[in-house]
Amino acid sequence: MCGIVGVMGRSPVNQLIYDSLLLLQHRGQDAAGIATAHDQFFSMHKAHGLVRDVFRTRNMRALPGNSGVGQVRYPTAGSSASVDEAQPFYVNAPFGITFVHNGNLTNWRELRESLFKHDRRHINTNSDSEVLLNVFAHELQQASNGVTLDAHAVFQAVRAVHRRAKGAYAVIANISNFGLVAFRDPHGIRPLCLGRHDTDAGAEWMLASESVALTGSGFSLVRDIAPGEAVVITEDGELSTEACAEAGQEQTPCVFEYVYFARPDSVMDGISIYDARLHMGEYLADKVAKSLRLGDVDVVMPIPDSSRPSAMQLAARLGLNYREGFIKNRYVGRTFIMPGQAVRKKSVRQKLSAIDMEFRGKNVLLVDDSIVRGTTSREIVDMARAAGARKVFFASAAPAVRFPNVYGIDMPTQAELIATGRDEAQIAREIGADGLVYQDLDDLEQSLRDLNPAMRAFESSCFNGRYVTGDIDEAYLERLSRTRGLPQRSGAMAAAADE
Ligand SMILES: O=P(O)(O)OC[C@H]1O[C@H](OP(=O)(O)OP(=O)(O)O)[C@H](O)[C@@H]1O
Ligand SMILES: NC(=O)CC[C@H](N)C(=O)O
Ligand SMILES: [Mg+2]
């Protein structure tokens, strides 16, 4: 679930891209990179680590130019160890392209083979993003005959990418001496939005995974890029767009963006993430009222950070006390997107600590946005008891995660999910809770439809096992589990946690 950004500005954009990557840091903590364009050249810097660690003053000075792209990475293909898989990626032909991608291709192995056999293109990493860049580059070469490049040729190339690539992709590319290109997969699984800032010299444009990157950088949100749509912004600021996907593909944005990934101050596909989480809390409150004896609950507590709005609203709806009993260490990142179980487990303890007086002698209802591997909930219930809680109930604003994700969330095996092979009572025992309540999937999706009725369906495969791209079967999942299910331990976060 990486974060991507692209800017076509009227003055140097290096600081602007850095600032927007900071606003997208919650989407990827493993690596960061920026590539800018100036005259005939691209300049690029990428490395492992958080944005603030990757870019020093000397790196920023070496990124001149009025347009560029940037990315923060959360690896879902290849490994977090390889800095060559950090983004942006670059190809020299045709024209020279730098490229950032959020999502995951499900047919990248087949594409890689066909790129080599038929298109004579060598892929030098295990990154699906490098494969996608080369498919785009090849199709652009075909569409432009390698000579004339215009928006029409770009749209033709994106149409061909949609035909060849399967899976989830939101992409921003910068083509040398031409401009920015952005597109979103035909189902719109991964998010992408467009912003504008007017200057005396003319309009500046920014594309980003989340609206907070735009609004936090002084741009106003114009709109979301539609599923299958492509956008071209030339170097003189002229914008053209075209719907490039074949008709009949249903829009299904990833439901997990609303549950966990996106920042609450973003608006995604017409739905405020904050409002969505409040609303999830209301539906969850109704389920809690049916499942637990409310008289048994003294206090409701969020598990910082992501569950706060849901917990707050749940407490208000049920007329229960809301208290913040866990304090978060602001210098520890998000644990779920760290690479490797050992580092995730250790980080929960480093990240959260309990205020004893809020727990002593009380029955507490802990609310989290989701339970995936159970890393957080196992530790947290334990900490609540150690702090003196009498009974510990647990409610999750998302249903049980029971299936692997193949579209850009790194949960490739069922074996790692706490819900695998367990019913709710068994999961409650496993995390040590006296009672456990999960949101129903219908209610979760309805809570989003209530806020934007145009959003009829969602990509909810990790909850229901339905994969919208139609190419995922048992054999695929079995291979994924074999190839990506191995423990991964590397990258800056792992190193930091070992210190
Ligand atoms: O069951 P698990 O495998 O532990 O995954 C779920 C937990 O991970 C996430 O928190 P995270 O610490 O990543 O981020 P947050 O601070 O945004 O809540 C999420 O909010 C849950 O708390
Ligand atoms: N989560 C993502 O968007 C990851 C992008 C790409 N699949 C990678 O692994 O680098
Ligand atoms: Mg959390």
From TrEMBL:
Glutamine amidotransferase type-2 domain boundaries: 2-236
Stored Pfam families: GATase_6 (PF13522), Pribosyltran (PF00156)
Cofactor note: Binds 1 Mg(2+) ion per subunit.
GO molecular function: amidophosphoribosyltransferase activity; magnesium ion binding
Enzyme Commission code(s) on record: 2.4.2.14
GO terms classed as biological process: 'de novo' IMP biosynthetic process; purine nucleobase biosynthetic process
Keywords carried by this UniProt record: Glutamine amidotransferase, Glycosyltransferase, Magnesium, Metal-binding, Purine biosynthesis, Transferase
Active site residues according to the UniProt entry: C2
Binding, Mg(2+): S306, D368, D369
InterPro entries associated with the record: GATase_2_dom, Ntn_hydrolases_N, PRTase-like, PRTase_dom, PurF, PurF_N
Enzyme's top EC category: transferase
Cofactor names: Mg(2+)
Pathway field: Purine metabolism; IMP biosynthesis via de novo pathway; N(1)-(5-phospho-D-ribosyl)glycinamide from 5-phospho-alpha-D-ribose 1-diphosphate: step 1/2
Listed transmembrane segments: none
SUPFAM superfamilies on file: N-terminal nucleophile aminohydrolases (Ntn hydrolases), PRTase-like
Tree of life domain: Bacteria
Reactions performed catalytically: 5-phospho-beta-D-ribosylamine + L-glutamate + diphosphate = 5-phospho-alpha-D-ribose 1-diphosphate + L-glutamine + H2O
Signal peptide positions on this chain: none
Similarity comment: In the C-terminal section; belongs to the purine/pyrimidine phosphoribosyltransferase family.
Function noted in UniProt: Catalyzes the formation of phosphoribosylamine from phosphoribosylpyrophosphate (PRPP) and glutamine.
PANTHER family for this protein: AMIDOPHOSPHORIBOSYLTRANSFERASE
Name listed for the protein in its UniProt record: Amidophosphoribosyltransferase
Organism: Castellaniella ginsengisoli
